[in-house]
Design a protein that fits this description.
Elements lengths: L2 H16 L1 H8 L3 E5 L6 H12 L1 H4 L2 E5 L6 H8 L7 E6 H10 L11 E10 L1 E6 H6 L5 H10 L5 E4 L5 H13 L4 E4 L3 H10 L4 E5 H9 L3 E6 L25 E8 L4 H16 L1 H8 L4 E2 L4 H22 L5
Parallel strand pairs: 1-2, 1-3, 6-7, 6-8
Antiparallel strand pairs: 3-10, 4-10, 4-11, 5-8, 5-9
Length: about 325
């Protein structure tokens, strides 16, 4: 085959790939959106909300929940799908920033096997104490908590949803920056960890704001700080930890990715549709009920963000000593 024929063949192949979404819409073929967690959680709810909003621009989007192995099973299914724009999925803090360093063996390469479409949301974590325990110890601020820990070495503990969980790593980061010690007690999931805090088994947690908010509002938990760079409108008067420790930021996030090799025109079309959906007032209201802030980005911005998060969590996982064989 001469050079001219090779160029023509390459151009034809690129045209086929770049038109795959248009053909899917014309023929009614659905797009599959893989959520690497069970139905009913915040990732699933937000994915379903966006699937409804892009129906007119992209056609039918079917949600496919593939949970297990900390999200690795679903993420691997995304990575190994055909790069034609007909299978996309959700990348999250765990699957694309924590798990690559936490698991001894990974079925996919978080840095090479995916193409970012757009970040979807950001949800702050929040440093919380049992309200009764905080009152008993006269702890009303982060400064009070640090002062108590330094005056009473080895007396504090904190809970999380398990070794290597977001709450565990955030707790280790807080301890490092504050120069304090608190014993980590891992539980089998976020809900048992919160129940342990409510019952007084542990002294503090760093929990997802969406999970902790109902008990904060009920007065059962005392919020000392959020872990985002800025204060959260959902918790007026609660400062960010960054006001105590410059640059402290450890939020929960997720977004949309496609398999690596998906043609850029296809990625661009997906980005345009989902960014429009994220910017819709109805989406902001619906996500706001989950205390999730929509964060539409370009594909390049989301790729760069995920790379920076992997670098951050590499250090945190190493410092924590957490491993999953």
């Amino acid at each position: 085959m001469n050079r001219r024929n090779i160029l023509l063949a390459s151009a034809a192949a690129a045209a086929v790939f770049s038109s795959s979404l248009a053909l899917a819409q014309d023929t009614g073929a659905p797009i599959r959106l893989i959520v690497p967690y069970a139905p009913g959680g915040p990732l699933d709810i937000t994915a379903r909300a966006l699937a409804e909003r892009v129906r007119e621009s992209l056609g039918t989007v079917i949600i496919d929940n593939k949970g297990g192995a900390g999200g690795n099973i679903g993420a691997d299914a995304i990575a190994k799908a055909a790069p034609d724009g007909l299978t996309i999925g959700i990348a999250a803090t765990a699957t694309h920033a924590v798990n690559p360093w936490l698991y001894a063996r990974m079925p996919y390469d978080a840095g090479k096997d995916f193409a970012g479409i757009t970040q979807m949301v950001r949800v702050p974590n929040v440093l919380v104490m049992n309200a009764e325990k905080a009152a008993q110890l006269k702890i009303n601020s982060v400064a009070d908590l640090i002062a108590y820990a330094k005056a009473n070495p080895a007396k504090l503990n904190y809970g999380s949803g398990g070794n290597g969980s977001a709450g565990h790593l955030a707790g280790e980061m807080f301890k490092q920056r504050a120069g304090i010690f608190a014993l980590h007690i891992p539980y089998r999931g976020g809900n048992p960890a919160q129940l342990a805090l409510l019952s007084g088994e542990v002294d503090f947690n760093i929990d997802n704001l969406a999970t902790a908010a109902p008990n904060i509002r009920a007065g059962k938990l005392k919020a000392l700080a959020v872990t985002s760079l800025q204060a959260s409108p959902a918790l007026p008067g609660v400062p960010p930890l960054s006001s105590t420790f410059k640059g402290f930021a450890i939020d929960t996030w997720w977004g949309l990715v496609a398999p690596a090799g998906t043609p850029k025109p296809v990625i661009a079309k997906l980005n345009k549709a989902f960014v429009a959906a994220l910017n819709a007032p109805e989406t902001k209201t619906r996500f706001g009920a989950l205390l999730a802030e929509p964060v539409p980005t370009t594909p390049e911005q989301f790729d760069a963000f995920m790379a920076s998060e992997r670098a951050k969590y590499q250090q945190l996982v190493k410092a924590s000593g957490a491993k999953v064989d």
